[in-house]
Amino acid sequence: MISRISIGTVNFGIPYGAGLDRLQVAEAEAERILEHAFDKGITHLDTAVGYGDAEEVVGRCISSIKPVEVNITSKLLPLGAEEKRSNIVSLLCAEAEKSCERLKVPHLERCLLHKASDLYGEFSDQVCRALVELKRTGLVKKVGVSAYTQEELSASLSLGLLDVVQVPFSVADQRLLRSGMLEHLNDADVEVDVRSVFLQGVLLQAQGKRHPMFNVENGAIALFLERCRYSGLTPLQACLGYALQLNSINHTVVGVQSVKQLETIIKSTETEFNSWEIFRDCAWTHEDLLNPSNWHKLGAD
User: Fold this and answer.
1) CA–CA separation, 55 vs 74, rounded Å?
2) Which domains does the chain have, with CATH numbers?
3) What is the pLDDT of residues 269-283, one digit of tens each?
4) DSSP 79
5) At what angle do helices 88-103 and 54-65 cross, to 10 degrees?
6) Cβ neighbours of residue 25 closer than 8 Å, sequence gap 6 or more
7) pTM of the prediction?
8) Residues paired with 44 in a beta bridge
9) Are 254 and 37 in contact (CB under 8 A)?
10) What is the three-state SS of 253-275?
11) Which of 1, 39, 16 is closest to 293 using CA atoms?
């Protein structure tokens, strides 16, 4: 189980989280987190060009710790208006090379487009050629997209280039399972990494700390907590176990704010999880709340 954990590093570069838990990790603590993770057998890290200076922080930590093995997933910035007038193949290849330089690694295990629609949009041909070139040169081992919706996944898959996708998945967000997309991805030999298993911490917050916009899902949250009590699991154990028990999911990305929090997560992976079915009816019905990028539109600070 532990080898299928990937440490999310967005909060190494920018403040991240929900409500009062929105914090940025100091670099010294980031190094302690990564050193502890490597010591415990976690070798996968998740980052992105768009995560502030997270790549630089990770690079300095790796240079200091010198782990025996490290496998990094990074995401390229979405194409902007200026980039779309440039040589996209050269631009994306140069961006991936700069990521490797910042991370102080010879290559990326996975390189994802942070905006899935860049793969199948107006400049699809050039973007596809860039991904092929990245693999040909050995700068990247596997290519893919970070997606939010089933529509993005379907459109991206249709091009036949994907080695891996990263998608949201949690007790609250079961669209990947209910749509049959997880099975479809497995059949296509596409690796699946999942994120937001704690929904940026919302699923772990006490009711008084949750933003009022989540009140419309109080019924589903109450049911989730009831099922946790029935199963003898903490909310963290249930959220993590729900993803890790699926062998069809390759890695589960988790963000941590301290070594103590990481140790709690590691211990949770040792908990026997036999309660998968009883959490299937805890899914949220308001899909707009499942995408954190929507929260500011819904009243979040």
Assistant:
1) 8
2) 2-202+248-272 (3.20.20.100)
3) 988 888 788 999 999
4) P
5) 40
6) 11, 12, 33, 257, 258
7) 0.94
8) 6, 71
9) no
10) EEECCCHHHHHHHHHHCCCCCCC
11) 16
